[in-house]
Model the fold of this input.
Amino acid sequence: GAGVSQSPRYKVAKRGQDVALRCDPISGHVSLFWYQQALGQGPEFLTYFQNEAQLDKSGLPSDRFFAERPEGSVSTLKIQRTQQEDSAVYLCASSPSHPRLTNEKLFFGSGTQLSVL
Amino acid sequence: ELKVEQNPLFLSMQEGKNYTIYCNYSTTSDRLYWYRQDPGKSLESLFVLLSNGAVKQEGRLMASLDTKARLSTLHITAAVHDLSATYFCAVDRVGTASKLTFGTGTRLQVTL
Done:
């Protein structure tokens, strides 16, 4: 597709339920990022992949959060035993290579809005 | 811990007026970004500022960076309604490979 695609667009989960959020980056993009954006706040970094390698997961808030990108393209962010504080918009971003090394822009998806009841 | 602060948090301005959004950050960084976000939409990259004194302009928006003061500004000239959105600055911390730290955002409303 033309841009970064995320699904579902909206997800409502009951507390304790597991959820999986999908990100389809722009075809050929090497770098992939996940950010969490709480209501009225700026995005906060969760994790970063270069191809299939997860190079930085320091922003994942707990061991309930897990991300993978097994073939270096599509990525899934999984949240186990969801809690109310997990309610947020989860944004995925990609770039052709490493943005810091190449001054390239990040391309963001529209996000998945997760509501935990 | 790197902190990024924006002000104002909310800005209502009339069409045709000028205004400036400020972005302060707490630790050394050599790279600053400005993004725009419309409600329910993606973040759109506006500017990447790479060095002290950098200035970039696109249309009615101009961004500048003072790394000594740890300050960036986003200046809006002769605002139009289409500029209504939330604007974020973000800083890429020296020594980290990938993380952006975002400000809280400035919600801009341009009234007719």
Q: What stands out?
A: Helices of chain A lie at 99-102. The longest strand of chain A covers residues 88-95.
